[in-house]
Amino acid sequence: MESERSEHTGGVAGRLGGGGGADPATEAFVVHRNLLFTVAYELLGSAADAEDVLQETWLRWAGVDLGTVRDERAYLVRITARQALSRLRTLGRRRESYVGPWLPAPLLTAPDVAEDVELAESVSMAMLLVLETLTPTERAVFVLREVFDLGYDEIADAVDKSPAAVRQIAHRARAHVAARRPRGVVSPAETRQALDAFKRATETGDLQGLLDILAPEVVFLGDGGGVKQAVLKPVVGADKVARLLVAGLGRATAAMLGPAQVNGYPALILRLGGAIDTVLAVRIDDGLITGLYAVRNPEKLSHMRQETALRR
């Protein structure tokens, strides 16, 4: 199976060669590749677009005079953020015509992502959906400051704003996210426990069992992208969501749900005919499921075949 390194580096692989060492630009890019992918993914919520941004970043980095670069990590992050921000503005217009709810593309992640609590929270489906409610510039400033700890001067260069403006944007974005993010840190064990109860209830058709783990205001979102069948509008309320799941999944289908580590947290995968059909992630607040996110769009499931390495 091809590694994430070769997939994300693309044309860089050719610069590494078999016998000699890589040139300094290539070495620096490869060292920070997983970090740069993580930056682009957190800004875009799309693995495919994040990979495209990495290619654009490499093309610009390859032409940089390294003698003028004081901090390679910060410089590469700034290039990546600038390219991702430009793409995010374009994607925002495209998403307005998207069929049904738009959900981030899920990533099959390695166990070490879950060990970094801040990283896991920042790439969780729940947090990525909160980030979708920010403007592109607010999102870039928040991610670069809160997740990757860039200085205000460095962020200002990436988003083409003054440091003073960036400080104001960061304050506004921080308050916006704080009002919408999951209440408290949710452990993987707590998520796994909720998913186990969910799976048992759907397998047995236990409507009351589902109601017991769903928050009264739970929201179900399905993303089929107009390609696969999915709800076209959010389904809100425990009773409606529970009945939809019992009727829609059925006991036989629910029995085929299997565990996986997705975006740093436990999730469920439905395989039909050996292929991934649906990825189901959850948001948990105060011990109850407040969000259910079912991704079915095949174009968004390509990064569920192998683990993606993420870094801060």
Summarize the structure.
This protein has 312 residues and is α+β, with helices and mostly antiparallel strands. The chain has helices spanning 4-9, 13-16, 24-44, 47-61, 72-95, 111-115, 117-123, 125-131, 136-147, 152-159, 163-178, 188-204, 207-213, 238-254, and strands at 214-223, 235-236, 257-262, 265-272, 275-285, 288-295.
Tag the structure with descriptive keywords.
312 residues; alpha+beta; six-stranded mixed β-sheet; 6 strands; 53% helix; globular; disordered N terminus
Report what the structure shows.
The chain is of the alpha+beta class. Helices cover 53% and strands 14% of the residues. The chain has 14 helices and 6 strands. It has helices spanning 4-9, 13-16, 24-44, 47-61, 72-95, 111-115, 117-123, 125-131, 136-147, 152-159, 163-178, 188-204, 207-213, 238-254, and strands at residues 214-223, 235-236, 257-262, 265-272, 275-285, 288-295. A 6-stranded mixed beta sheet has the order 2-1-6-5-4-3. A hairpin with a 2-residue loop joins strand 5 and strand 6. Helix 3 packs antiparallel against helix 4 (47-61), helix 3 (24-44) packs parallel to helix 5 (72-95) and helix 9 (136-147) runs antiparallel to helix 10. It is globular and about 65 Å long.
